[in-house]
Design a protein that fits this description.
With 173 residues, the protein is α+β, with helices and mostly antiparallel strands. The protein is built from 4 helices and 8 strands. The two termini are 13 Å apart.
């Protein structure tokens, strides 16, 4: 379902600042976790997606610095926090295959870092951000109203997990 937004006339307050978001395609027993967003969400209400969320300063400032000047793994650590908050699940190491950028309807530019990884522990327990969940195969995912691009990310992950070389697998948009 394509939505047309006129970006040329949209006011963007600071063109250098972006909201940083990360998502995770979580695989368990050949199936992928998808979540249905609450209908009260600002962006993509009621649509199906994968777990994730925005990076906040507290995600790293409340941790010891990795070096004298910086916090390494801030995004992946915040993603693990988001997964736990949204689903109650833990994952194994998350791997990074791609990123994307978009502008929210309220004019906020967003950079999304997409990861994938295997389920490690826990049973799904949704928080208020989601109203339903499913573990689906790639073919089953095609029957859901997924946010644009999520199906292609699941397809890419499926190919990688079936032995494909991540450097050779293309995102099909």
């Amino acid at each position: 379902m394509e939505r047309e937004i006129n970006y040329k006339n949209m006011e963007i307050k600071d063109k250098e600042l972006h909201r940083v978001v990360s998502t995770a395609i979580i695989q368990k027993d050949g199936k992928y976790l998808i979540l249905r967003r609450s209908t009260s969400k600002k962006v993509f209400p009621g649509r199906w997606t994968v777990p994730g969320g925005g990076l906040i300063v507290d995600d790293y400032t409340n941790s010891p610095k990795t070096t004298a000047d910086a916090w390494y793994f801030a995004v992946s650590n915040s993603l693990k926090r988001e997964i736990k908050e949204e689903t109650g699940l833990e994952t194994n190491q998350l791997k990074y295959p791609l990123d994307l950028a978009f502008i929210r309807p309220d004019g906020v530019p967003v950079v999304t870092l997409s990861y994938y990884g295997d389920w490690k522990a826990g049973d799904v327990q949704l928080n208020e951000e989601s109203i339903d969940y499913k573990w689906v195969t790639l073919d089953e995912a095609k029957g859901y109203d997924l946010i644009e691009g999520i199906l292609e990310e699941i397809e890419m992950t499926d190919k990688i997990l079936k032995g494909g070389d991540p450097s050779e697998i293309q995102y099909n948009y």
